[in-house]
Amino acid sequence: MNPLDDVAFGPPTAAMTRPLLAVARRIFTDTFSHRYDPDAFGQFCDQAYAVDGPMARDLGDPDVDWQVAAVDAKPIGYAKLTPLRAPAQTARPGSLELQQIYVESAWHGTGVAERLMQWAVERAMQRGAPQLYLTVFDHNQRAKRFYARHGFQEVGRCTFTLGERVDDDRIWCRELVA
């Protein structure tokens, strides 16, 4: 049996808001909490994943596209496509950003991330974006291999600050149209 048979893909429903915020926080915590001061990390997450925080605001933003992977209507991952927010120096007008693509670790290697990435690229092309950008933590080798397999290349640098810690991120880009 294909594990994707049990996974539904689509835009988030209003009923998914709280579960989506919770799964996003859990994935972020599982992936990065060991790198940061626990108090600063908790404060960051309390703000980022609050029902009135930036992720929740993006859920209501018509310029932000979402694709959620869910099993039994419970999110297990998602992709978020936004207007370009990364400080990309050579971005062409209309470029978009794959701001987040997160999948619970139990679903790594099952094809969920592949489907989410396929959706993001197709949706960006439907919106007429000439380029699709993303940022990735410089030491996240698994993510960098995934992005490279999907045609992204490193084109710049930026930073991510959480508490007193400033991390080095990389800006990656995939050309979509000439």
How many DSSP H or I helices?
5
Strand content: 25-35%
Determine Rg (CA atoms, Å): 16 Å
Please write the CATH class name. Alpha Beta
General form: globular
Largest pleated sheet: 7 strands, mixed
* CATH hierarchy: architecture: 3-Layer(aba) Sandwich
Counting DSSP E segments of at least 2 residues, the number of strands comes to 7
How far apart are the termini?
40 Å
Instruction: Tell me the structural class.
Output: alpha+beta
Mean pLDDT: 95
The named CATH superfamily: Gcn5-related N-acetyltransferase (GNAT)
What count of structural domains? 1
Describe this structure in words.
There is one protein chain. With 178 residues, the protein is of the alpha+beta class. It has one domain: Aminopeptidase, CATH 3.40.630.30. 32% of the residues lie in helices and 31% in strands. It is built from 5 helices and 7 strands; from the N terminus they run βαααβββαβαββ. The chain has helices spanning 17-32, 38-48, 54-59, 112-126, 141-149; strands at 8-10, 65-71, 74-83, 96-103, 131-137, 153-162, 165-175. It has a 7-stranded mixed beta sheet with strand order 1-2-3-4-5-7-6, with helices on both faces. The radius of gyration is 16 Å and the shape is globular. 30% of the residues are buried. The model has no long low-confidence stretch (mean pLDDT 95).
